[in-house]
Amino acid sequence: MSTMLKRDFEKKFDLVVVGGGQAGCGAALAAARGGLSVLLVEASGALGGAPNVNLVNPFMPWTTKVTEGGEEKTLELSAGIFGEIYRDLCADGIFCKPEERHHFSEESLKVILDRKMREAGVTVLFHATLCDVETSGRRIESISVATVGGILRFRCGAAIDATGDATLSAFAGVPFQLGRESDSLCQPMTLCFRICNIDVEGAWKSWDAIQALYKKSQAEGKITNPRENVLVFPTRLPGVMHFNTTRVVKHDPTDPFSVSKAEAIAREQVVELFHLLKDNIPAFKDAALMEMAPSIGVRESRMVKARHVLTREELVAGTHFPDGIAAGNYDIDIHSPDGSGTSHYYFPAGVYYTIPFRSLLPENFDNLLVTGRCIGATHEAQASVRIMPICICTGEAAGTAVALAKEAGLEPADVDTSALRARLVENGAFVG
User: Fold this and answer.
1) Assigned CATH topology for domain 6-182+300-426
2) Residues near 111 by beta carbon (within 8 Å), at least 6 away in sequence
3) Buried-exposed string 356-372: b where 16+ CB fall within 10 A, e elsewhere
4) Distance between CA 142 and CA 6 in Å, rounded?
5) Residue 18: which H helix or E strand, with range?
6) pTM of the model
7) Which residue, 431, 400, 370, 419, is CA-closest to 33?
8) 3-class DSSP assignment, residue 28
9) What is the pLDDT, as a whole number, of residue 93?
């Protein structure tokens, strides 16, 4: 006899968004502002996703330089809701120096997003993990989540997968590609961490010595991290440096046992590097290990088989699609899935690509959209589109599409893309 608690909510939401990260927040806000009843489901206890759960910071670059009338100008490729969130973060006074504007406070981000959801009328459900999806033909009918109150089921007119791992899509039976096409290996997972009580100025002056010490210790077997160098970012906090440098390769981010092992491996890498710096670099002599991210960060996992799968060639060519709903030019940044090395392709100034609406549409559903880093893309293309500013923009496009579809009495997959692009522009987004 089952003792599982089950509650079936009869209220049908116009839209259920699964995943309260950057993409999910963009989707929920856009849809609610478009007049829909929206449920935003998040597995953790705060909105924002990677900055909160994985300590991912800063925002990666989202601008390019263009020349207009003989004058060089900065073109904001991520605007709309991302620009709104960014301005709110600036107004909160939490940035580093003006030239380091992409660094931000995760704590401020949480509160800003709470307020925006409340103002827009989004129903937010924290501590809720997706556990089941009900489908009928080409439609998602309901989603179920596991909570402290039992299994809760919600019916929906449409659904948006903003899980990052395409979990909703996989549960529903959407075909997907895991990692790179040749062997399904994904970009490595990384556990970010911060060290405090550092002489930061002295640390930067010692940077060549730090890299040399790291490589020497790696060759001697004292450092087990396969990454080729130490990657660190400044922070807004005095005496604190942010490390994005652990690397766990050949682990499957969609296998819970593999992820569990990766977490432990990464923590050992953190401790190794901390002691190496504290014991050998004068700027770190009084240092303390401030914090490790609550969970390991995943760069890449499932990418859905969408109606259009973005390719590296399309990005490098600066393709502007007729149904483009977001834009980007972040470098094609691939951390080796099987060892050392990081490859980059940097876009020339003024060159950017757009992301077609079709890349948000799974090939076998009409009321399910996918947003964030699990949209339809190859391993190489995903390495550029995965950053947070772009994720918010694809989320905004997905939420706007569902709102437009509701207005027109259509399935989201059938929305008029010209009308979608026009609405996005009207709302302040940049679509190319």
Assistant:
1) FAD/NAD(P)-binding domain (3.50.50)
2) none
3) bbbbbbbbbbbbbbbbb
4) 14
5) strand 6-18
6) 0.96
7) 400
8) helix
9) 63
pLDDT digits (tens, 9 = 90+) for 209-253: 999 999 999 999 999 999 999 999 998 889 999 999 999 999 999
- The partner residues of 176 in beta bridges, in order of sequence, read 304
CB 360 within 8 A of CB 394: yes
- The Cβ of residue 402 has, within 10 Å, a number of other Cβ atoms equal to 27
How far is Cα of residue 352 from the mean position of the Cα atoms in its chain?
19
What single string gives the DSSP state of each residue in 344-403?
EEPPPTT--EEEEGGGGSBTT-SSEEE-GGGSSB-HHHHHHHTSHHHHHHHHHHHHHHHH
> CB within 8 A of 264, min separation 6: which ones?
none
- Between the alpha carbon of residue 81 and those of residues 56, 213, 377, 428, the distances in Å are 19, 43, 23, 8
Cα 89 to Cα 225: distance, rounded to the nearest angstrom: 34
Tokens of 252: 């499957």
Cis peptide before 253 (omega within 30 of 0): no
178 near 165, Cβ under 8 Å?
no
Measured CA to CA, the distance from residue 430 to residue 325 in angstroms comes to 8
Residue 97 burial (C-beta neighbours within 10 Å; 0-12, 13-18, 19+)? exposed
Q: What residue type is assigned to position 128 of the chain?
A: A
Q: Mapping DSSP to helix (H, G, I), strand (E, B) and coil, where does residue 326 land?
A: strand
Give the DSSP letter string of 175-231. -EEES-TTT-PPPPBB--EEEES--HHHHHHTHHHHHHHHHHHHHTTS-----SS--
Let me know the angle formed at the C-alpha of 111 by 106 and 114, rounded to the nearest 5 degrees.
125
Per-residue pLDDT, averaged over 2-22, amounts to 79
Give me the residue spans of the domains in the chain. Answer: 6-182+300-426, 193-292
The answer to whether 148 and 128 have CB atoms below 8 angstroms apart is no
Alpha carbons 202 and 221: distance in angstroms, whole number:
27
Q: Residues 270-291: pLDDT tens digits?
A: 999 999 999 999 999 999 999 9
Q: What's the pLDDT score for residue 99? A: 47
Residue 203 near residue 281, CB atoms below 8 Å: yes
Residue with structure tokens 């040399």? 212
